[in-house]
Amino acid sequence: MIIYGKQPVYYLIEKHPKKVKTLFVSKELDKKEYSRLMRMDFELKRIPENAAQSMSKTGNHQGFLAEVDELDLYELKELNDAKFVLVLAGITDVGNMGAIIRSAYALGVDAVIISGIKQFSAENIIRSSTGAAYDMPLVHVHNLYDVMNELKLEGFTLYGAAMDGKDIRDVKCDEKRALIMGSESEGIPGRALKKLDMAVSIKMENEFDSLNVSVASAILMDRMR
Fold first, then answer.
1. Whole-structure pTM over 0.85, yes or no?
2. Is residue 3 classed exposed, middle or buried when 0-12, 13-18 and 19+ CB atoms within 10 A define those classes?
3. Backbone angles phi, psi at 211, to 5 degrees
4. Positions of E strands within 95-153
C-alpha cells in the first residue's frame, strides 16, 4: 500500500517506523536528515519527480511517498472494553473521514466504526487522517442497523447528531456511549433516528444552515468526553 504527503509519511516514520517498508523521496534532503533516514530499518529510495507523480496518481505527494503495511481493521466484538465509540453512518468524503478520525484520536475516543458504505480506501483515509488511522481502532460494518443493535446489546447508550436534538451542553452522557454521525447530505437515516436513545445537537448563536460534519463531530466528541 502506498501513501504520500509529508505529514502522514513522517507521522508513520516517527510513530510506526516498523510499518514502513520503503520510503521514496523525490526532493532534496539536507545531509543530516538523509543520514538519519538511511539509518532506519526501512529502505530509502531516491526517485525522479515523474515517478513520484505516477505513484501518487498525480496527488500532492510533496516529495514523500511510502510503501507501508496494510491497515488492520478491528471486529465489533473486539470493542468490549470500549467506553466511547464513534459511528460514521454513510459519510463518504475521505477528507471528512480523515479529519474526524484525527479528532477522535486526539479527543480520546476508543474506536471509530465506519458504516453505511460497502468499502473505503484505506490509503486515502491514512493520508487524510495524517496517519492517525494507524493509532485509532477502526471497524468497518456495512449495515448501520447491525452496528446499532450490537452496541445496544453491549450496553452502549446511542446518541445521534440531529438538527432538532437536545443541546449537547445540557446532556449528561452515560459512561458507555456511542455517538452516531450521519452523512454529509442526508444525516442519520430516519429509521436509525428512531433507534437512538437520544438525539443531540449543537445550538448555534447565529442562525446558519449547518456545520461541516467533521467540525460538528469534533465539537460533539469534545462535549461528550
1. yes
2. buried
3. -95, 155
4. 111-115, 138-140
